[in-house]
Amino acid sequence: MKNRISPSVMRPLAVVATLLVLVMMMQVYWIGISWIIVSAAGIYALWQFVRQLRLWWQGRHSRVAGRERTLRVLAACMGLFLVSGTALYIAAFQHQSAAPETSFVNAEYLFRSLISSLGLFMFNLDSNVLDGIKDAPLLKGAISLQALFSGACTIALLISLAYARIVAYIKLHRRTRIDNDHNHLYVFFGMNEPSRLLARSIRRQEGERALLVFVEKNAVDEDTFDGWSSIVGLFTHRGQTFAETDELDARVTFTETRLCDIDKEKLSRTDILGQINLCKLRTLISELASGHIDDARLHFFFFSENEDENIRSLSTLALDETINRIDPSRVERHFYCHARRNGLNRVVEDLSVKRGLEVHIVDSSHLAVELLKADGRCHPVQLVETDADNPATVKTPFTALVVGFDEAGQDALRFLYEFGAFVDSTATPEAERRSPFRCIAVDPRMDELRGPFEAFAPAALSSRNADGTPLIDLQASDCRSARFYNDILRPLLPSLNCVVIAVGDDEQGMLLATRIYSSVRRERDDLSRFRIFVRTYQAGKEELMQQIADHYNEGCRTDSPRCVDDIIVPFGQKEKIYTYSTIIDDRFTQDGKRFLESYARMKGGPLWDDRHATLSGMRTRRTSEKDLRSLRRKEAQDRANAHHAATKLALLRRSRPDTFDWAGFLDRYFGPDGIKPHVTGSLSGITYPALSADENRIILNLARLEHLRWNASHELLGYTCADSTLHACDERTRRHNCLRSWHELDRESLTVSALEGWEADYKSYDFGVVDVTLQLHKDKLIHPRTQNNR
């Protein structure tokens, strides 16, 4: 039997034979193939160069885009020179191969020519090739000229890469000065979305007066500092950084070491800015503190996403001798640190007060909810019905659902619990009762989140409605689970007023909002008393989230004419948080300060700055924990009173017909001088003689409302009602003698009057808050967005 070769052996042999044939053919035609490849590459490179040159000419007037297009033109030119250099070397090798004593491997025609052409960009001429073409002066001259052009491209590339950094250096060291026209210095350690948004807002607000400086870390790591990459990295940084600083007319400087990486225990000196090579910044700060600059202000920002790094950077910079030598009476010094407003970070604020530094914890989640408080259209009062027979009271329950119990979710619950405290329409001053309230908070990690929240605010968690249901119900459940939809959401659909979604993801939050909206829409025709607030997290998705919300809101208004306001409301947008008014001017504190100063003028008492200086120990550099706790509590109440004005005014307007003469009412309320209302009586007998009996009843209900809000806020702060042995506020134990129902205040006032020897009237404080609210409204000093549009 004849032996046959296996097909598995024949196939590889056939492939090898084919390759040998192709190699033999390429040996014969290699020069021709090389010229074809180079010609095709040359045509493509020339086309790219002409195309990029045309684009550069079209965008030559744009500073940022023009710089990028210049680099593209340069890259296209280098590609063209690479091909032309390769062609010249092929011609040189072909010329040399004509000599009998010279032999080349055919592959050298293309590959060695390409390598030699690359060398031209570093002015590296192949001397062996030049020696071999001595008898071809034109070809030799062309290669030399090509080396000049290619090397020039390399130099141009380095200059273009270093251009932005050179310009930044010149701006900072030669064109930056401190004088009375440039006396507000803002220093950002790191550039990210929050710092860019705030810097842009500062520039719009202050114009040329603001001097913006960004401190960035060099792009090159010392551990990898070698070769070509080190040369490029030495001159380059993120191009976007330079582009954005140019847009903001800001300055940028670089440091090799971040503040958070400095070991404070090993510091040999306290010249922190000098140690990290920020000498120019140190000079600017010294000029600002020289005493010759009017209204000098110095602001430092630490806005990275890493909270620990922000705290460490702040504590390190606070040791700098240049900053500590500044006289606080001459220069305002402010430090802004992005971190959570918890107990630990509040200690950082307290400790800084003793050193005369103003440290502000910037909590984006907290500020997101504060923006809701400052907008009267988002208040719970918009979602309940008032009683016509008992004006300024509420006859419908308020039901809320909070999905996600992270920082924003917890702050949202506090907001709803405090601003959702209304006087029940069936209650009387002798039998005080809060209107029915229920808020369910849902989170898959609720078992570990419940403990700290309940331990801090035991009174709020133990509060019950008249039917025995808890006011706050914390549920451990995933918002994507069947239990959430069937056992938690479905029973709430007929009565649900408000949903706050803060799940940490924009898309998941908006998807959940649309599903809840659709579920409620199937159950109810009228959605005028229903809102969904969705927390946004990523700046790049805010516009998309708003477009989705607008789509559903427009559809609801089309189907239900009673739905005037938006149903789905995104909140917490970074462009609204990181603004001059919110961060620098701290408009929420300004609102509280305005309220307290109006209260002090009307009722007497300390002003904001005096109280802050006394309790914080700014003057003596000594303070106590109870003083700081008292200060935080009182300032929080002033801010809450300013924001809650929208709720009081909404209830006041609903209590009167549309044709009511409000101007005449305010004139009668404040009398001829228009400053202080005429009030008679005390305790339960407080009366406004210029008002009718019905109007006095309304003011009484507003004072009761204020006391309910005050009680709710203190419960969330961890305070409980003092026992019969304590008739004051004990900040150490967090017990307050006024944390009791309205009808019990008279008895407590009489007891304190007898024991302390001064005429106590705790109800007059609540009436005083109502008086100041109406005065600010009359004088148009309440922020426009706190006005109710209904």
Q: Would you mind describing this structure in some detail?
A:
By secondary structure, the protein is an alpha/beta fold. It is elongated and about 120 Å long.
Briefly summarize what is shown.
The protein is an alpha/beta fold and 790 residues long. The chain has 29 helices and 15 strands. A six-stranded parallel β-sheet has the order 3-2-1-4-5-6, with helices on both faces. The chain has a six-stranded parallel β-sheet with strand order 9-8-7-10-11-12, with helices on both faces.
Helix proportion? 40-55%
Work out the number of β strands. 15
Largest sheet: 6 strands, parallel
| Order of neighbouring strands in the sheet with most strands | 3-2-1-4-5-6
Rg on CA atoms, Å: 37 Å
> Strand pairing plus helix content: what structural class?
alpha/beta
Question: Shape from CA axes?
Answer: elongated
Share of β-strand residues: 5-15%
Question: What is the strand and helix layout of this fold?
Answer:
Elements lengths: L6 H52 L4 H35 L10 H13 L6 H6 L4 H38 L9 E6 L3 H14 L3 E8 L9 H9 L3 H10 L2 E5 L16 H4 L3 H10 L7 E7 L4 H11 L3 H4 L6 E8 L4 H12 L3 E5 L1 H10 L24 E6 L3 H13 L17 E7 L2 H11 L1 H5 L9 E5 L5 H11 L5 E4 L4 H18 L7 E5 L6 H18 L8 E4 L2 H4 L2 H5 L2 H17 L4 H9 L8 H30 L7 H9 L22 H24 L3 E2 L7 E2 L4 E2 L8 H12 L5 H17 L12
Parallel strand pairs: 1-2, 1-4, 2-3, 4-5, 5-6, 7-8, 7-10, 8-9, 10-11, 11-12, 13-15
Antiparallel strand pairs: 14-15
